[in-house]
Design brief:
217 residues; mainly alpha; Zincin-like; 10 helices; 3 strands; elongated; transmembrane; peptidase activity; Zincin_1_sf; transmembrane helix
Length: 217
Amino acid sequence: MPAPTPQRILLSAAAALLLGIAVITAFNGFSPDYPMRLFQGIAVVVAAVLALAFVASLVTGSLANWRTPESDEEFEELVERSERLARQGSWGEGEEDWEELDDDDDDDLIDPWNEEDFKAIVRSAIDELPLEFHRALEHVAIVVSDGGRRRGAYGLYHGDTVARDGFADRIIIYRDTLLRDFGHDIDLLRAQVVRTVRHELAHHLGWDEDGVRGLGL
């Protein structure tokens, strides 16, 4: 996941400033000076939009029946399990024996440039994860987007991590950049989608960018 850009930091600071002005306006009323009154009006509108977005995120989390791990021990067990699998290079090996599929035959039927086929590749990458990680992703929305060029990334995690109770979590897989760099080879594309899903999952489990790189992702 890319580090916050200066533009994002400035936008956050501007939003905080407008929110503060909106609060002051709510207590003291609008200024008689027209330019200041206009600025206060903009601040109030922005604050209302942010409030609605916050409420929407809470509702989404509630509808998804979001909950944190039942105990600290449960969370630590999940983290230790993921570390062990990463060290062993066995993120994609489940506890059960799965019937082997003929990947060559499947590849003949898949057009990665087709939106539904690309989503199928993402679903396959998720299915390869051990069952413990399926549980960690149970209430995480997996979104396919074409905004990767703008962010310069293959994927993005947005949320509070599995250890915290906050905004609804999302993992975004950027189709445009993945297809741009790996669309010429279906095997390379599959491998990078798998790597991207695991990279963002590691962020959901609590690792920062340095920690994720330490896992080889």
